[in-house]
Amino acid sequence: MLTREQLKAVRKIQIRTSHLVTDLFAGQYQSVFKGRGMEFAEVRLYQPGDEVRTIDWNVTARTGAPHVKRYAEERELTVMLLVDASASTYFGSVRQLKSALAAELAALFAFSAITNNDKVGLVIFSDRIELALPPRKGTHHVLRVIREVLSLAPAGRGTDLPAALEHLDKVTKRRCVVFLLSDFLAPGCEKALRIAARRHDVIAVVLDDPREAELPAVGLVELEEAETGARYVVDTGDARVRAAFARQGAAARSARGRMLRAADVDVVGVATDRPYTEALLRFFRMRERRQ
Asked: What is the reported pTM?
């Protein structure tokens, strides 16, 4: 049962994201993710009247009889939302938590999908699969997706992104558009991402917070590592400590960027301290130019 505050949050996200879909993203989504038009269906024997250009020469050479490729119109897509619910996403130092940002973005992608008559599915993961909803259509289903992302209390604290992608591979029979919302702080996921990108259209939505890049000078503070629970006392008044933290943060972000590029997935960077609309519009424009 949702609390009154959670219900208000769901309604607020519904109003805001529906407005953004109507005013900004519906057309971009359709042009970017509806571009294939026809998809391969089967190979069959050539019949009089078939176009020569549809002949599959490899199959023809192998069988000794002319075969043609048959295509079917691709009428809808399946959009899968993979949302990281590890403890590191329940952090935010400015406008909102990374988890709340992920919920709003998931809603935006989901409403964009159903506006174009696509199905939407959900996988919430930490160091285990916390929740999975099969792809469906309709506003009622999207509202459930938002409620689950906002209200789920994860059992795990860590991150196992390869397990989430392996689960996706088990439950999907065809190519999907996959929005993977995570801070990607856990190492060792490049191989799993690369494998997923060969089968699906994977978009990595990277969640950041400015406090992960630099520390303010506020004296002695006790910090807790979100996913392990380890605690440290840090003297933020020491400029050398702040500089070392900034170097480590920059190195981690650089390594994350290299990993995502090597995995050959598209990347959208968003942060808790600034609006995400411009980042998404840049992403859609980039995809349109590439197509």
From this structure: 0.84
Rounded to whole angstroms, how far apart are CA atoms 291 and 261? 19
Residue appearing with tokens 């301290």: 273
Q: CB-side exposure of 140: number of CA atoms within 13 Å? A: 0
Q: Do 189 and 284 belong to one domain?
A: yes
- 105: containing domain: 4-34+76-290
Number of domains in the chain: 2
**CA–CA distance, 248 with 32 (Å, rounded to integer):** 36
Residues in Cβ contact with 44 at an 8 Å cutoff, skipping those fewer than 6 apart: 67, 68, 70
With a cut of 80, say whether residue 1 has pLDDT above it: no
Between CA 265 and CA 288 the distance in angstroms is 16
Mean pLDDT of the chain: 90
Which residues lie below 8 Å from residue 237, measured CB to CB, with a gap of 6+?
217, 218, 219, 220
Question: Which CATH number is 278's domain given?
Answer: 3.40.50.410
- Average the pLDDT over each of 70-74, 92-96, 148-152, 241-245 and give the range with the smallest value: 70-74
pLDDT average, residue stretch 240-268: 95
For residue 234, the surrounding DSSP H or E stretch is strand 231-235
Q: How many CB atoms lie within 10 A of CB 211?
A: 15
Edge-to-edge strand list for the sheet holding 201-208: 129-136, 119-125, 78-84, 177-182, 201-208, 266-271
Cβ neighbour number for residue 142 with a 10 Å cutoff:
24
